[in-house]
Amino acid sequence: MGKAKFRYLPHTADVAFVAYGKSFRETIENSALAMLGLMFETKKIKAEKGKTKTLRITERASGKEDLLWFTLQAIVSKVDEKGASAFRFKVNSISESGSGLVLHGCIFYKRMREYSSLLDVKGVTPHELAVSRTRNGYSARVLVDV
């Protein structure tokens, strides 16, 4: 069995998780996967017949924590706005600009009304969010407000 992409942590009120990746990019994707897994039955949606659609996201931030936070918040907003049953997020690129980092990515979803949300994710809490460099790449600790 391969290395875990994420694990959920015990928390008194909301939902917390740690996501892992060999790169910061992969850590963002696995953070999104963990969050989407709280919201939807991602494996069922992915396996379901029907056209896969995408929603593009562009986020700018001064550092890694803010970039992760802004990206996860944008995913929650876009999914809610479109009524999309999302099952994956892919980072297309992360580049440095004069003011920090710029991320371009895509949310993959299907229009499936029969998949109601598992949890109503209201947002990502910024004060406990942390991105760390590890021996094997990166990890991100995220607290989701449900």
Q: What does it look like?
A:
The chain has helices at residues 24-39, 42-47, 64-82; strands at residues 6-9, 15-21, 53-61, 85-97, 100-110, 123-134, 137-145. By secondary structure, the protein is α+β, with helices and mostly antiparallel strands. It has a single domain (6-145), classed as Archease, Possible Chaperone, Chain: A, domain 1 (3-Layer(bab) Sandwich). The strands form 2 sheets. A 4-stranded antiparallel beta sheet has the order 1-2-7-6, with helices on one face. The protein has a 3-stranded antiparallel beta sheet with strand order 3-5-4. It is globular, with a radius of gyration of 15 Å.
- Helices, by number, come to 3
Shape: globular
Query: So what's the CATH class?
Result: Alpha Beta
Q: How are helices and strands ordered from N to C?
A: EEHHEHEEEE
Q: Major sheet, described briefly?
A: 4 strands, antiparallel
Determine the N-to-C terminus distance: 31 Å
Mean pLDDT: 91
- In the CATH hierarchy, the third-tier topology is known as Archease, Possible Chaperone, Chain: A, domain 1
- The number of distinct structural domains comes to 1
Could you list the spans in which at least 5 consecutive residues all have pLDDT below 50? none
What's this entry about, in short?
Helix content is 28%, strand content 45%.
Blueprint (SSEs and pairs):
Layout: E1 6-9, E2 15-21, H1 24-39, H2 42-47, E3 53-61, H3 64-82, E4 85-97, E5 100-110, E6 123-134, E7 137-145
Antiparallel strand pairs: 1-2, 2-7, 3-5, 4-5, 6-7
